[in-house]
């Protein structure tokens, strides 16, 4: 990549919450960043709207049935953007030679294939899709190391840790990393109070504006569980050296503790544009549109332990990580099935963790020896989840 030329970016998950924040930052720096590819799942109209604004060379819709509508829509708008569809097209753009940076912002295990394609091709990979690390963390990290791909975490906690770790990359004197959790919209509630909560209540995150799936994960604390596994892989940190503390204000985005007793933290407003600006420009810094903290307003920062009785999902994730093998892949798949059912009013809020626990208790973990083994475990877990929902 020519250092003076703009970074050519493929944004996968462009129509989502992370996609919107990324495009906001990118639009502020046309001399540094240029959009090569915009990709979405199935919402063709939303993708065309973005194409009108950003004029990418390629627009990819993952759902193949959206191809004709995308192609015709782009041409009706007089755009020269080339339409493509399906998983192969996503992978092709994630690994294309004329793409420098891939922003992996597809939600769920659906993002794994294109994330792996970008890692295999040695891209600079801004990784928001935490599920791909939970499903296939070792494989993804090995793939990136082998190809020379640079993974820059853009999950806010991991981005904070990335900023606080030693620049020379030697983590020997790091004693632990501490992930902060907001506690979600139901922090302070007892289990009995959560029996009847609705999807609308669960997605109403107190601090962050995010997609529906991650918002529900925040409400169950599964998001923090997924993030613990994500941190384990990204930073090569043993599970015993990863802690979680509830910090309701979401101002301290996470912390790194050193052997000498120092703790470094990254602070900022809860706005993903900061995180994405760090990822896009690193090791430089660019304006993100987010102001610094107002210390009159944020004069108080609280910390408390997570309530594992009310929110068992966090412990389930620690347990799956300890079991190892395909257990984290199954945890992720079971959770995806349960959250989707909850959002469609086919499962209660407490039922989400109950389904995940039942699946992990029933299904055997196997060695995570290959991508096929992981994908087979993912499928088994989804089948278990569907049957559980049918019978409970
Ligand atoms: N939102 C946030 O602040 C944060 C998000 N993350 C992670 O980033 C990822 C994205 O989250 P978020 O932006 O909130 O999610 P959203 O639901 O807002 O957006 C999801 C994006 O993925 C696309 N998509 C959905 N299904 C598929 C599929 N099968 N194939 C291809 N694309 C698909 C959607 O397209 P379409 O619009 O067409 O459905 C959309 O562009 C998640 O892994 C999340 O955990 C991490 C930290 C913070
Ligand atoms: C913005 C981001 O990274 C989310 O993962 C956010 O941290 C969710 O907040 P909690 O899971 O801490 O509620
Ligand atoms: Mn996060």
UniProtKB/TrEMBL annotation:
<feature type="binding site">
    <location>
        <position position="157"/>
    </location>
    <ligand>
        <name>1-deoxy-D-xylulose 5-phosphate</name>
    </ligand>
</feature>
<feature type="binding site">
    <location>
        <position position="16"/>
    </location>
    <ligand>
        <name>NADPH</name>
    </ligand>
</feature>
<feature type="domain" description="1-deoxy-D-xylulose 5-phosphate reductoisomerase C-terminal">
    <location>
        <begin position="151"/>
        <end position="235"/>
    </location>
</feature>
<feature type="binding site">
    <location>
        <position position="227"/>
    </location>
    <ligand>
        <name>1-deoxy-D-xylulose 5-phosphate</name>
    </ligand>
</feature>
<dbReference type="InterPro" id="IPR036169">
    <property type="entry name" value="DXPR_C_sf"/>
</dbReference>
<feature type="binding site">
    <location>
        <position position="227"/>
    </location>
    <ligand>
        <name>Mn(2+)</name>
    </ligand>
</feature>
<dbReference type="InterPro" id="IPR036291">
    <property type="entry name" value="NAD(P)-bd_dom_sf"/>
</dbReference>
<feature type="binding site">
    <location>
        <position position="41"/>
    </location>
    <ligand>
        <name>NADPH</name>
    </ligand>
</feature>
<feature type="binding site">
    <location>
        <position position="211"/>
    </location>
    <ligand>
        <name>NADPH</name>
    </ligand>
</feature>
<dbReference type="Pfam" id="PF13288">
    <property type="entry name" value="DXPR_C"/>
</dbReference>
<comment type="function">
    <text>Catalyzes the NADPH-dependent rearrangement and reduction of 1-deoxy-D-xylulose-5-phosphate (DXP) to 2-C-methyl-D-erythritol 4-phosphate (MEP).</text>
</comment>
<keyword id="KW-0560">Oxidoreductase</keyword>
<dbReference type="InterPro" id="IPR013644">
    <property type="entry name" value="DXP_reductoisomerase_C"/>
</dbReference>
<feature type="binding site">
    <location>
        <position position="182"/>
    </location>
    <ligand>
        <name>1-deoxy-D-xylulose 5-phosphate</name>
    </ligand>
</feature>
<comment type="pathway">
    <text>Isoprenoid biosynthesis; isopentenyl diphosphate biosynthesis via DXP pathway; isopentenyl diphosphate from 1-deoxy-D-xylulose 5-phosphate: step 1/6.</text>
</comment>
<keyword id="KW-0521">NADP</keyword>
<comment type="similarity">
    <text>Belongs to the DXR family.</text>
</comment>
<feature type="binding site">
    <location>
        <position position="15"/>
    </location>
    <ligand>
        <name>NADPH</name>
    </ligand>
</feature>
<dbReference type="InterPro" id="IPR013512">
    <property type="entry name" value="DXP_reductoisomerase_N"/>
</dbReference>
<feature type="binding site">
    <location>
        <position position="156"/>
    </location>
    <ligand>
        <name>1-deoxy-D-xylulose 5-phosphate</name>
    </ligand>
</feature>
<dbReference type="Pfam" id="PF02670">
    <property type="entry name" value="DXP_reductoisom"/>
</dbReference>
<dbReference type="Pfam" id="PF08436">
    <property type="entry name" value="DXP_redisom_C"/>
</dbReference>
<feature type="binding site">
    <location>
        <position position="224"/>
    </location>
    <ligand>
        <name>1-deoxy-D-xylulose 5-phosphate</name>
    </ligand>
</feature>
<dbReference type="GO" id="GO:0030604">
    <property type="term" value="F:1-deoxy-D-xylulose-5-phosphate reductoisomerase activity"/>
</dbReference>
<feature type="binding site">
    <location>
        <position position="18"/>
    </location>
    <ligand>
        <name>NADPH</name>
    </ligand>
</feature>
<keyword id="KW-0460">Magnesium</keyword>
<protein>
    <recommendedName>
        <fullName>1-deoxy-D-xylulose 5-phosphate reductoisomerase</fullName>
        <ecNumber>1.1.1.267</ecNumber>
    </recommendedName>
</protein>
<feature type="binding site">
    <location>
        <position position="223"/>
    </location>
    <ligand>
        <name>1-deoxy-D-xylulose 5-phosphate</name>
    </ligand>
</feature>
<keyword id="KW-0464">Manganese</keyword>
<feature type="binding site">
    <location>
        <position position="131"/>
    </location>
    <ligand>
        <name>NADPH</name>
    </ligand>
</feature>
<feature type="binding site">
    <location>
        <position position="129"/>
    </location>
    <ligand>
        <name>NADPH</name>
    </ligand>
</feature>
<keyword id="KW-0414">Isoprene biosynthesis</keyword>
<feature type="binding site">
    <location>
        <position position="157"/>
    </location>
    <ligand>
        <name>Mn(2+)</name>
    </ligand>
</feature>
<feature type="binding site">
    <location>
        <position position="155"/>
    </location>
    <ligand>
        <name>Mn(2+)</name>
    </ligand>
</feature>
<feature type="binding site">
    <location>
        <position position="17"/>
    </location>
    <ligand>
        <name>NADPH</name>
    </ligand>
</feature>
<feature type="domain" description="DXP reductoisomerase C-terminal">
    <location>
        <begin position="267"/>
        <end position="383"/>
    </location>
</feature>
<feature type="domain" description="1-deoxy-D-xylulose 5-phosphate reductoisomerase N-terminal">
    <location>
        <begin position="9"/>
        <end position="137"/>
    </location>
</feature>
<dbReference type="InterPro" id="IPR026877">
    <property type="entry name" value="DXPR_C"/>
</dbReference>
<feature type="binding site">
    <location>
        <position position="218"/>
    </location>
    <ligand>
        <name>1-deoxy-D-xylulose 5-phosphate</name>
    </ligand>
</feature>
<dbReference type="InterPro" id="IPR003821">
    <property type="entry name" value="DXP_reductoisomerase"/>
</dbReference>
<feature type="binding site">
    <location>
        <position position="205"/>
    </location>
    <ligand>
        <name>1-deoxy-D-xylulose 5-phosphate</name>
    </ligand>
</feature>
<feature type="binding site">
    <location>
        <position position="130"/>
    </location>
    <ligand>
        <name>1-deoxy-D-xylulose 5-phosphate</name>
    </ligand>
</feature>
């Amino acid at each position: 990549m020519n250092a003076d030329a703009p970074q050519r970016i493929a944004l996968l998950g462009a129509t989502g919450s992370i996609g919107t924040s990324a495009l906001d930052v990118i639009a502020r720096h046309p001399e540094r960043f240029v959009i090569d590819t915009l990709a979405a799942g199935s919402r063709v109209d939303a993708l065309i709207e973005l194409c009108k604004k950003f004029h990418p060379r390629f627009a990819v819709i993952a759902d193949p049935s959206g191809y004709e509508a995308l192609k015709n829509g782009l041409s009706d708008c007089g755009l020269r953007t080339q339409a493509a569809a399906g998983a192969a097209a996503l992978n092709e753009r994630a690994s294309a030679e004329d793409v420098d940076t891939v922003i992996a912002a597809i939600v769920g295990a659906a993002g794994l294939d294109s994330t792996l394609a970008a890692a295999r091709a040695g891209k600079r990979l801004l990784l928001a899709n935490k599920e791909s690390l939970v499903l296939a963390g070792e494989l993804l990290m090995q793939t990136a190391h082998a190809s020379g791909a640079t993974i820059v975490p853009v999950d806010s906690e991991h981005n904070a840790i990335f900023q606080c770790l030693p620049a020379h990359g030697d983590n020997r004197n790091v004693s632990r990393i501490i992930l902060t959790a907001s506690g979600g919209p139901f922090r302070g509630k007892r289990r009995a109070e959560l029996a009847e909560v609705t999807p609308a209540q669960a997605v109403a995150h107190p601090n962050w504006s995010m997609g529906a799936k991650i918002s529900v994960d925040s409400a169950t604390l599964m998001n923090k569980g997924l993030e613990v596994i994500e941190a384990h892989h990204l930073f090569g940190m043993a599970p015993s050296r990863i802690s979680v503390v509830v910090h309701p204000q979401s101002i301290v985005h996470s912390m790194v503790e050193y052997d000498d007793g120092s703790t470094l933290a990254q602070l900022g407003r809860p706005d993903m544009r900061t995180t994405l600006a760090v990822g896009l420009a690193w090791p430089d810094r660019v304006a993100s549109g987010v102001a610094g903290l107002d210390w009159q307003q944020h004069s108080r920062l609280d910390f408390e332990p997570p309530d594992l009785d009310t929110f068992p999902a966090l412990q389930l994730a620690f347990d799956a990580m300890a079991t190892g093998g395909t257990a984290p892949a199954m945890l992720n798949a079971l959770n995806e099935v349960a959250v989707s059912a909850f959002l469609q009013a086919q499962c209660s809020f407490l039922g989400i963790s109950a389904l995940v626990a039942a699946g992990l208790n029933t299904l055997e973990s196997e060695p995570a020896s290959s991508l096929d083994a992981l994908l087979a475990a993912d499928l088994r877990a989804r089948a278990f989840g569907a049957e559980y929902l049918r019978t409970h």
